[in-house]
Amino acid sequence: MSNIWKWMIGLLVLAVLLLSTVAYRVRYYEAAVVTTFGRADEGSVKNADGTGAGLHWKWPIPIQDVKTYDVRLRVLEERGEEQQTRDKKTAILQLYVSWRISDPLAFSRSLQTPEQAERVLRDRLRDVRAVIGRYDFEQLVSVDPDKLKLEEIEGLMRQQMREASEANRYGVRVEAVGIRRNVLQKDVATQVENRMKETRTTLAQQARSEGASAATNIRSRADSAKQRILAFANRRADAIRAEGEAAAVEQYKVFQQNEEFAIFLRKLDEYKKAFSKNTTFFFDARKGPFDLFVSPNLPSSRPVLGDSSGSN
Q1: Closest CA to 103 of 172, 15, 189, 166
Q2: CB-CB contact of 100 with 73 (8 Å)
Q3: Would you say 85 and 136 are in contact if contact means Cβ atoms under 8 Å apart?
Q4: Are 67 and 35 in contact (CB under 8 A)?
Q5: Could you say which DSSP state residue 27 is in?
Q6: To 10 degrees, what angle do helices 186-255 and 259-274 make?
Q7: Which neighbouring-strand residues pair with 91?
Q8: Per-residue pLDDT of the chain (312 residues; tens, 9 = 90+)
Q9: Which residues contact 291 (CB under 8 A, 6 or more apart)?
């Protein structure tokens, strides 16, 4: 029984080995190039458009061989290197390039491996650094967005690397080239810091000036509104005063017909105001308008006790 199991396991292992020589698998993020006696054509590429993933068959080696490539986006970063700008200032810039295998067949014929592709791209990345030398330092580092030219610089570097790749038929596509890090030297960093402080100081002074101007305008409008309101109130008060004086003149004309009766009526009005609440009080009968409470037979110096709650 044990011999039978050994034979079955051996046959299974042999079948797997034979299957691996005539079959291969392509993952969804890979592209495969099948070579026949070391040659390949456009029809030898599998899953170049993302629709050929899965299990495929081939002739065993040495008739056919398969090379698979990861076609996902890759990022290559270089070490920081000194770069001089057009205005003779130096910065330590670290560049990066993102790329992918766009033509597996051309890639297998030229670069063959991702490691070789990275070596070539690294050399090209050093060459395109010359683009930075066409610009001033202030166009790389500035607090004013209008002066920055980073997008323009990165676009030119990307274009040059794409043209070099297409001219040499590497089978790779450069998606982006950019400046990952900008390390300033000590003296340059001090200059940049001072320039940024000056810019911020200027902006702060401008903001304060605008605030003072706005405050002056607000106060001016408020003063103007106050003057208009006071002028209107004065005109209204003068009109009311004129109406009151006119009414008083009419009353004076009536009172002149019988002055004693007019004085008596005014005294009664004063009594109504004084006795409107329950109050006990002392008053000098010699002073008007309370002389009506004094009998002609009483001494004028006698004080009179009044109670607004009782009868008078």
Answers
A1: 172
A2: yes
A3: yes
A4: yes
A5: -
A6: 130
A7: 83, 184
A8: 577 776 777 767 766 666 677 888 899 899 999 988 888 888 888 888 878 888 888 888 888 889 999 999 999 998 888 888 888 888 888 899 999 999 999 999 898 899 999 999 999 988 888 898 899 888 887 777 888 888 999 999 999 999 988 888 889 999 999 888 877 655 555 665 566 666 667 778 888 888 888 888 898 888 888 888 988 888 888 888 888 878 777 777 777 777 777 777 777 777 777 666 666 666 666 665 556 555 555 454 444 444 544 444
A9: 285
Q: Which residue has the tokens 């295998």?
A: 101
pTM of the model: 0.56
Secondary structure (DSSP) of 121-153: HHHHHHHGGGGGGGS-GGGTS-S-TTT--HHHH
- Which has the closest alpha carbon to 126: 165, 159, 157? 157
Measure the CA–CA gap between 232 and 238, rounded to whole angstroms: 10
| Two structure tokens written together for 120 | 């070539």
CA–CA dist 177, 160 (Å, integer): 10
Per DSSP, which regions of 90-235 are E strands?
90-101, 172-184
- CATH classification (class only), 74-184: alpha beta
Contact of 153 with 178, CB cutoff 8 Å = no
Q: Is the dihedral of CA 40, 42, 46, 48 positive or negative?
A: positive
298 token code pair: 């009483």
- Return the domain boundaries, the chain: 2-70, 74-184, 259-307
DSSP H/E element including 284: none
